[in-house]
């Protein structure tokens, strides 16, 4: 799975969680979306871990700067899982 | 990832539909996993910013303080959501991370100006370990365990003294690391044994206002490896995994509800394929499966044993079966393997009427509300009819495997007591006595000689420390004979013991058939020369026994002794207290005013002539006994 495919899946997760529609792009950051607060962030991480069957290591989600980097991290974890 | 209705609830919010809040409440009560609860919590936050607070009829406001040695976020969100599902709009006071000790000790702390009704405490588990050597003597280690517990509990006492709040105190997860191996069993200093012992000591020594939120049990039930989550501890100071957070929050919310709505009182049982295997009408006494001769018979017997054990905590057993009465009663009287005998059953309905009708009749006979009933049946059609016609009754549909029956009842969580009082243990007998009263009542021609024949004794007393659990139980569950339906927590009742602004009174009743226990509670508040009756309630099983007149005589006696000239009583109507609508008029009070939302009535204490009763009076407080 590549970044674009992951973002595609993420879009569906975000559509469920957010009230106002958010269009995900690799450059999008949480700061740009009013609804995207720390509570929603927890929901996103838990949903993503459940959806892709992966687990992030300590601190690595916080280290990502935008949706693109977050998707890359997911791609990496999926690859490790199937390796 | 979310409940099926999540999308539709979201749509209700987006379209600002009035059904949004009730739908969110229903979904919050059902939510089971972290993702679902959190999604609903997020939705609620958004809704409050768009629509304002939820209406009071959806959620009653409640002030709750949460503090502890962990990050309380997102636990507080989940807890708040479960409370909302149970009908409470929590206003939260959140402690700072790991500041709970100073927050409680500091008199100027924000928690005290907040005046919480409930305090939820999650103490830091990392503080509870043995600091000495692993080879230390057992007594030395036990000493430290005791000290650790006493310190924590005295902190809780301190919090309660200043707030009178009920306290939910979390205990601890057993450390599941393999380290020490089998040697962990050989010393109390091993983390495993140390924490286990702390949990036991905490529970056994907790005062009545401390309710243990049993994290130890919940984590064990989930599996310790599922409950703990080291990454989330280091990352964000969480107590455990998201799954454990949900379990803790749900349990704490359930305890808040249980403090306000006590457990169910009546268990209504089907017979065929519920208490025994087979159909008594077809298979006959020898054909039914009950007892140790077969595996299924043994399972039914185990179920009966469990059901009978519930009577020990005050649950009443009733039977509701589609059968001929003479056939249905036969196993109870003749089958040697039956654990439940006919004298354990307070009400026995075996006929061909709809079960909903029978249950309604049982409720009337026992004088208990339908919302205190649980109905158990193996037949989905019978469960359905009761659900439809008596939605207040809780129902349990048994699976077709009798080996699961006990756990289905155990896990229904309808019969969990916060405390068990002596009164609970004898309650079942009291209801069985009722049947005998009805016999006398019909054989005695006039009421007066009936009452005389009962040889009643009323024991009257002000509130006493040892009665506080029973008094608060009555205050919180009496619905019918309750003039104001004013509820008070156990702590609030306790504070009345020393109040100078209140007059308190309890009445116990016994007669020649036995002891009814503490059955009436009165609280008066004093304003100048007027005694306002704040609370007047009585257990309905002693209706028409002149307890009302006895109580009034006592109230006037207390008032005149202290120089109060007037006694003013109020009636505040509720859904269930219609029976006392004319209570004060019947007792000779004059109406001050009366309206749909209640009335106020006055009695001049001066010149009052005590009502004649057939009651002998014993006073328990520093006064010699007299007899009327």
Topology:
The complex is a heterodimer of chains A (83) and B (628).
Chain A: H1 3-17, H2 38-52, H3 60-63, H4 67-82
Helix pairs in contact in A: 1-2, 1-4
Chain B: H1 6-14, H2 20-30, H3 34-51, E1 60-68, H4 75-85, E2 88-94, H5 100-105, H6 110-114, E3 118-122, H7 138-163, E4 166-170, H8 191-205, E5 210-213, H9 215-222, H10 224-227, H11 230-236, H12 242-260, E6 266-269, H13 280-287, H14 295-311, E7 316-322, H15 325-334, E8 345-351, H16 355-366, E9 373-377, H17 380-389, E10 394-397, H18 405-410, H19 422-443, H20 447-453, E11 456-461, H21 468-477, H22 490-496, E12 502-511, E13 514-527, E14 530-538, H23 547-562, E15 566-571, H24 583-586, E16 590-595, E17 598-604, E18 615-619, E19 626-627
Parallel strand pairs in B: 1-2, 1-3, 3-4, 4-5, 6-7, 6-9, 7-8, 9-10, 11-18, 14-15
Antiparallel strand pairs in B: 11-12, 12-13, 13-14, 15-17, 16-17, 18-19
**Main structural class of chain B:** alpha/beta
Q: What would you call the shape of chain B?
A: globular
Query: What is the count of distinct domains of chain B?
Result: 3
- Which homologous superfamily in CATH is the superfamily of the largest domain in chain B? SGNH hydrolase
Counting copies of identical and different chains, the oligomeric state is heterodimer
Count of discrete alpha- or pi-helical segments spanning 4 or more residues of chain B: 24
Would you kindly provide a written description of the structure presented here, covering whatever features stand out?
The complex is a heterodimer of chains A (83) and B (628). The longest helix of chain A is centred in the C-terminal third of the chain and has 16 residues, at 67-82. By secondary structure, chain A is mainly α. Chain A has helices spanning 3-17, 38-52, 60-63, 67-82. Chain A has one domain: ACP-like (Non-ribosomal Peptide Synthetase Peptidyl Carrier Protein, Chain A, Orthogonal Bundle), CATH 1.10.1200. Chain B has 628 residues and is an alpha/beta fold. Chain B folds into 3 domains: 59-260, Rossmann fold (3-Layer(aba) Sandwich); 266-410, Rossmann fold, CATH 3.40.50.1000; 444-627, Aminopeptidase (3-Layer(aba) Sandwich), CATH 3.40.630.30. Chain B has 24 helices and 19 strands. In chain B, the strands form 3 sheets. Chain B has a 9-stranded mixed beta sheet with strand order 16-17-15-14-13-12-11-18-19, with helices on both faces. A 5-stranded parallel beta sheet of chain B has the order 2-1-3-4-5, sandwiched between helices. Chain B has a 5-stranded parallel beta sheet with strand order 8-7-6-9-10, with helices on both faces. In chain B, strand 3 (118-122), helix 7 and strand 4 (166-170) form a beta-alpha-beta unit. In chain B, helix 1 runs antiparallel to helix 2, helix 2 packs across helix 4 and helix 4 (75-85) packs across helix 12. At the A-B interface, helix 1 and helix 2 of A face helix 1, helix 3 and helix 11 of B.
